[in-house]
Write a structure and sequence with these properties.
CATH superfamily of the largest domain: D-amino Acid Aminotransferase, subunit A, domain 2
Mean pLDDT: 95
CATH topology of the largest domain: D-amino Acid Aminotransferase, Chain A, domain 2
Structural class: alpha+beta
CATH class of the largest domain: Alpha Beta
Radius of gyration: 19 Å
Low-confidence stretches: 1-7
Helix content: 10-25%
């Protein structure tokens, strides 16, 4: 399921052209580059079918609206171009990306209202946040000293590339021998990691932070699946001091699904191995990928 991949076979789209993935380049004239003023979404294709495509497109549209972009592509065009990237790549298992940038400035001076947004899309071979071995055994995570950018400064529900806090937090993790960092807010409550939401299991209750986080599609799926697993989902404040005392902890991402956490700051979570709730929800999650109600076929 999870493996190291060569990204060379991918296909992308920019400025009206389909190109090899390696040929996609953002012009430095784009204000999105200058200000990191862009939003994006990531969707995976599994066995030739998009998973929750329309949910991702809904979120992408909300992000564009919140950024007040002058975005000239319709939803149908966004979907069609992304699908064509997958079709041309021939990839049956793929990670796809949709990006809307602020775009180039039209006319003299600097006025964001005179920008026309650029749309970029591509399809890469499927990849996951963690390795196959970590998926089996669990992944260690470090809590960073770097606080998450507050949501009243950068809206975390808009999936964006303004992520210097995550970059700095990763160096905290590296110093502890980890590859993944969990960020707290300024009140010491859990938020998220780079590219993933987090869940903590306390008995039959599955808790995920209620603010300061991306409203992930995998996160949404887990909350829905709790009912099938006779579990109580809770979207609530999760103090940073409580998470290491959980029975189980797992990460949730489009790039990998549900991924067990074995240790936090060196402290084993439960037995230090993937727990029964994580395993059960993982099974239910991948079963949904066979359900036509959650998937969209790619015609190659």
């Amino acid at each position: 399921m999870m493996q190291d991949v060569d990204l060379a076979p991918g296909v992308g789209y920019i400025d009206g052209q389909y190109l090899p993935r390696a040929g996609i380049a953002l012009p430095t004239t784009d204000v999105g580059f200058k200000l990191c003023d862009m939003c994006y979404d990531a969707i995976h294709v599994w066995r030739g079918r998009f998973f929750r495509l329309e949910d991702h497109l809904d979120r992408f549209a909300r992000s564009i609206a919140k950024r007040r972009f002058n975005f000239p592509f319709s939803r149908d065009e966004v979907r069609a171009i992304l699908t064509e990237c997958v079709r041309r790549s021939g990839l049956r298992d793929s990670m796809t990306m949709l990006i809307a940038t602020r775009g180039d400035m039209l006319g003299p001076g600097f006025d964001l209202r005179r920008c026309t947004s650029r749309y970029i899309a591509w399809a890469d071979p499927y990849y996951a946040v963690i390795s196959e071995a970590q998926a089996r055994e669990g992944v260690p995570v470090a809590i960073s000293r770097v606080p998450r950018v507050p949501p009243d400064s950068v809206d975390p529900t808009v999936k964006n590339f303004a992520r210097i806090d995550f970059a700095d937090a990763l160096y905290d993790a590296y110093e502890q021998g980890c590859e993944h960092a969990l960020l707290l807010d300024r009140e010491g409550n859990v938020t998220e990691g780079r590219g993933w939401n987090v869940f903590a299991v306390f008995g039959g209750t599955v808790v995920t932070p209620d603010s300061g986080v991306l409203e992930g599609i995998t996160r949404k799926t887990v909350l829905e699946l709790c009912a099938r697993g006779n579990l109580e989902p809770r979207v609530a404040v999760l103090p940073g001091g409580d998470i290491a005392r959980a029975d189980e902890v797992f990460m949730a991402s489009t790039a990998g699904g549900l991924m067990p956490v074995s240790r936090i700051d060196g402290t084993p979570i439960g037995s230090g191995a993937p727990g029964p709730v994580t395993r059960r929800l993982t099974d239910l999650y991948w079963e949904l990928h066979e359900d036509p109600a959650y998937t969209t076929e790619v015609v190659y």
